[in-house]
Amino acid sequence: MKVLVTAGKRKRAIAKAVIKAGTGEVTVNNIGIDVIEPKIARMKLQEPLLIAGDGVSKVDIRVNVKGGGFSSQADAARLAIAKALVGFLKDKKLEKAFLDYDRHLLVADIRRKEVRKPNRHGKARAKTQKSYR
């Protein structure tokens, strides 16, 4: 049986997707994709599945996500799902459809939070406050 593992990252969130031949079942952290809350995260996760169309009914996708907030987790999971579908189905038309819809379905967003600086009270760029006036 053919199994493919892909990963997706967004800020601090890391998603790992395992795809194999099956019946079209998609789970994220052992929760069905149709019952994920909040709704905006569910809609983000369903985007690659809707674009892929009937190819999704032939595969099972299991995604594990950790770190970050719910929005970053959803972005990381949709990246992992899209990469898994393209890699498993080996369909150039599907890859082009993903890139035309949203480039971030296949290409990771590399932006990260800037590291805090010493003596800046948790801010990365704020000027230090003078206390001698």
Report on this model:
With 133 residues, the chain is of the alpha+beta class. It has one domain: Ribosomal Protein S5, domain 2, CATH 3.30.230.10. It is built from three helices and five strands, in the order E-E-E-E-H-E-H-H. A five-stranded mixed β-sheet has the order 1-2-5-3-4. Strand 1 and strand 2 form a beta hairpin. Helix 1 runs parallel beside helix 2. The protein is elongated, with a radius of gyration of 18 Å.
Features:
single chain, 133 residues, alpha+beta, Ribosomal Protein S5, domain 2, 33% helix
Q: What's the SSE blueprint?
A:
Blueprint: E1 3-10, E2 13-21, E3 26-28, E4 31-32, H1 39-52, E5 59-66, H2 70-89, H3 92-101
Parallel strand pairs: 3-5
Antiparallel strand pairs: 1-2, 2-5, 3-4
Specify the biggest β-sheet: 5 strands, mixed
* Alpha-beta classification: alpha+beta
Name the beta content range.
15-25%
Neighbour order of strands in the largest sheet: 1-2-5-3-4
Name the overall outline.
elongated
Order of helical and strand elements: EEEEHEHH
* Helix count, DSSP H or I runs of 4 or more residues: 3
Question: Helical amount among residues, as a percent range?
Answer: 25-40%
Unreliable spans are none
Counting structural domains, the number is 1
Q: How would you classify the quaternary structure?
A: single chain
Radius of gyration: 18 Å
Number of strands: 5
